[in-house]
Amino acid sequence: MKALHGIAALVLVPSVVLGGAAAADGPAPRAARTVNVTVGDDFYRPARLSVAPRTRVRWVWRGRDIHNVTVTSGPRRFSSRTQVRGTFARTLRARGTYRIVCTVHGQTMRIRVG
User: Fold this and answer.
1) Domain limits at 103?
2) What global pTM score does this model have?
3) Looking at the predicted structure, is the pLDDT value of residue 7 above 70?
4) Which of 3, 83, 92, 113 is the most exposed place for a label (fewest CB within 10 A)?
């Protein structure tokens, strides 16, 4: 099977509180949403993703090769360890664009959040 290469994007968008008594008292706390991203052999899936602030993004390894998740530019820097299986998660609070790459495979694996 041919390896897939893709660019993915995660975008933080502002939350909207609609009118009513809760808006006057301030927004009620919301449970954090979790979005899963598959880390396969030379791809992230989904290829593009837009998320609201406070969304937890969880990368799940499904391939046979080693990969990592490393922010190369964005409002916050983070990186996972290089691994073959397992998960890695971060809650994205800062709005902006995050450029994420697998440093093992150069520019062939990327996710942009923003």
Assistant:
1) 29-109
2) 0.70
3) no
4) 3
